[in-house]
Design goal:
heterodimer; A: mainly alpha; Butyryl-CoA Dehydrogenase, subunit A, domain 3; B: alpha/beta; Arc Repressor Mutant, subunit A; four-stranded mixed β-sheet; two-stranded parallel ribbon
Chain lengths: ~150, ~210
C-alpha cells in the first residue's frame, strides 16, 4: 500500500481534525491550529512509512499544535474580552457549547474527544496522548465523569 | 445522563455555530502549501467538450492531463501521481489557472495550440524524444508514426512510437493526436479514437500533411 495522495488524506481526516482542535482549543483558535497541523503533516508526509496509522498520526500532530497554541497564549497578555474566564457564569450563547469541554484539563479534553467522538481504541488514544494505555483510559474515564457531573 | 446524551454533548461542543468549515480551511491551506514550497503536485478539474479533464502540474510545468470517464477515475489518476511524482499533492486550481484558460480557449477555437511549460519527468527517455518531436507538429498538420520514428532516428520503430504516444501523460497539450497511421487511418488514441477525431476536426480537419 502506497501513501494516499495528500488531498485524499485531508479529505478523509480534515473534518474530524478540525473538530478535535475545536474541542481542544475552542472555536476561535481552531483554524490557526488546523493550518499549522496541515503544514506539519504535509512537511513530514513523504517520509512516512506507507503502512502508517495516518489517523492517529494526524491527531498526534494536531494535539502538539494545540499545546503550542496554548503555550503561546499563556505568554501573551490576556485580551480584556477573555478576562472573565473564571468567576462569571458561562454565557448561554451558541459558541459556548464548548464550555463543558473547556472546563476539563487539556488531557482529559483530548481523551474524551478521541474516545467518544472519534471512537479510537484506548491503545490509540494512548499513542496520541503519548502516555500509557492505562493513563489514557483513566483520562477518558475522569473526563467523562466530570462532564456527567457538570451536565446534570 | 445517558452515554448517548454525553456523546451528543461532545459532538455539539466540537462543532459550534460559526466554527470554521473544514473543507474551506483545506482550500485555504492549498495556498499556504504553495507559498511554503511544499506543493509538489497541484491539480484541478476542468470541463471540456470531450468530458471532464484532470490537469496536474509540478513547479516545472504540466505533468498530467487525464480524461476522466467510466474507464479512468479521478482517484486512480491521483494515486498514480502520488506514487510516481510525489504524495504531496493537493487540489490547487490557482497553479492551473493558465492551463485551464488555454484549454478553454483551445476548445472554443480562440487559440490553435498551447504555450505551457510541460514536465515530462513521468516518461522514459525514448518516449520523451517521441513526445518532444510530437509537441513540435503545428496545429492543423499531422505526421505518421513512421515519420516520427524516422525523425528521431529510429526509422523502423513506428510501432514503438505508437506505444510511446499511447503512454503520453499529457494528451491534448502534447498533441499526440496529430500522429496518425500511414494510408489514412487515424490510429489509436489514449482517450479513444472519437476524441482524436474531435481534436483533429477542431484543428481544421487534420488532413493537411506537411
Amino acid at each position: 500500500m502506497a501513501l494516499p495522495p495528500f488531498q485524499t488524506f485531508l479529505d478523509r481526516h480534515a473534518a474530524e481534525l478540525m473538530r478535535f482542535l475545536v474541542a481542544l482549543t475552542g472555536p476561535d483558535e481552531a483554524e490557526d491550529c488546523f493550518q499549522e497541523t496541515c503544514l506539519a503533516t504535509l512537511r513530514a508526509y513523504p517520509s512516512l512509512p506507507p503502512d502508517s496509522n495516518l489517523r492517529a498520526w494526524a491527531f498526534t500532530i494536531a494535539r502538539h499544535k494545540a499545546i503550542d497554541a496554548s503555550r503561546a497564549r499563556a505568554c501573551r497578555p490576556l485580551p480584556v474580552a477573555e478576562a472573565p474566564e473564571h468567576g462569571l457564569p458561562d454565557a448561554p450563547d451558541e459558541r459556548d457549547a464548548w464550555a463543558p469541554l473547556r472546563a476539563l484539563p487539556a488531557k482529559q479534553r483530548a481523551a474524551v474527544f478521541l474516545r467518544v467522538a472519534a471512537e479510537l481504541p484506548h491503545s490509540e488514544v494512548a499513542r496520541v496522548l503519548d502516555c500509557s494505555e492505562e493513563a489514557a483510559r483513566r483520562s477518558a474515564h475522569e473526563g467523562l465523569k466530570r462532564l456527567r457531573q457538570e451536565m446534570t | 445522563m445517558s452515554d448517548s446524551d454525553l456523546r451528543d454533548q461532545i459532538e455539539r461542543a466540537s462543532r459550534p455555530e460559526g466554527a470554521t468549515d473544514a473543507a474551506a480551511a483545506v482550500r485555504r491551506f492549498a495556498d499556504r502549501a504553495q507559498e511554503e514550497g511544499l506543493l509538489d503536485v497541484a491539480y484541478a478539474a476542468a470541463d471540456s467538450p470531450l468530458g471532464e479533464l484532470l490537469i496536474a502540474a509540478t513547479p516545472r510545468g504540466v505533468v498530467r492531463v487525464a480524461y476522466i470517464d467510466e474507464n479512468v477515475g479521478r482517484e486512480e489518476v491521483l494515486e498514480d501521481l502520488a506514487r510516481r511524482v510525489s504524495p504531496r499533492l493537493l487540489e490547487a486550481p490557482g497553479r492551473l489557472d493558465d492551463a485551464r484558460r488555454q484549454l478553454d480557449d483551445y476548445f472554443e477555437g480562440r487559440r490553435p495550440g498551447f504555450d505551457l511549460p510541460v514536465d515530462l519527468s513521468l516518461v522514459a527517455p525514448f518516449t520523451d524524444r517521441v513526445l518532444t518531436r510530437t509537441a513540435a507538429i503545428p496545429p492543423g498538420q499531422v505526421l505518421t508514426y513512421g515519420e516520427v520514428a524516422t525523425e528521431i532516428g529510429h526509422e523502423r520503430a513506428a510501432r514503438a512510437v505508437g506505444n510511446a504516444l499511447g503512454s503520453n501523460p499529457i494528451p491534448i497539450v502534447v498533441p499526440c493526436h496529430r500522429v496518425v497511421r500511414s494510408g489514412g487511418g487515424l490510429g489509436g488514441y489514449t482517450g479513444g479514437v472519437h476524441r482524436k477525431k474531435h481534436l483533429l476536426g477542431l484543428e481544421g480537419g487534420g488532413q493537411a500533411r506537411r
